[in-house]
Hints:
The chain is of the alpha/beta class. The protein has 10 helices and 13 strands. The chain is globular.
Amino acid sequence: MRKDSKILVAGSNGMVGSAIVKNLKDRGYTYIIKGTRQSVDFTNQKETDEYFSLQQPEYVFLTAARCGGILDNINYPVSYLLDNLNIQNNIISSSHKHKVKTLMFFASSCVYSKNSPMPIREESLMMGDLEKTHEFYSIAKISGVKLCEAYRKQYGSNFFSVNPCNIFGIENKIASSNAHVMSSLIYKIWTAKKENIDYVECFGDGSPKREFLYSDDLADAAIFLMDKGVDSFINIGTGIETSIKEIVEMICEIVDYHGRIVWDTTKPNGAPRRVLDVSKLNSLGWRPKTSLKDGIVKIVNHLDQSYV
């Protein structure tokens, strides 16, 4: 990408999209098109096509999606399937029609089977049953990966997919009931400390292991891969897994919270383990810069400054 290339970040108000916008600005890119819900309804095919006709982007980061926690996925399966299918289908097809040079589609580690061998390699896609708690979101994301693959195969389009592990950052809606697991845990424990609440309730039993990447690192990896050029589907992560229980203990230590942790085992755990094989990414020369603890500290500091 040139510094004056027309770069569309579809979903620029979201956690991943806003991190990419910030990273691009910091690197000196001057023509960043922010594709937000306020500027365009990507679920609407006609509106999306008109938007592309007007903006004529050269590069597209497709981060726009409906996403959320386990309960939201369980309660709104139709929305998670149809909204995401419409968003990605419309953007990918419009990118082809308007001759976008390179498109990067953001999938999710949820695309892999709940029984995939760990760490999960890219070749494990579509090998086994999906985790039921986010099955419909997963199906939509797999469709996006395959649509990019189809455009490459039929038209030679330079469209490819990246597959991030769990992402966390200050851009997430930390105080929202629909926040992702890391942000939700940090906010609960930070609030308990601030308001002198003597216990915090957490979903499940704390045993599931997850891999977390700080949003700034994901943005850095995405721009690295857009410049590098990738011809398929690639994992982005740290390759390090940590149990939810260990994460809760780490957050408690950081915010100096000494109340009780109550595990609500009536709530689902989700998949028992999920860690990605990032050897392909590492072989290209990229590694994360932010440790799990440092990322949590950044969010806690953000809360201290923003929610006084």
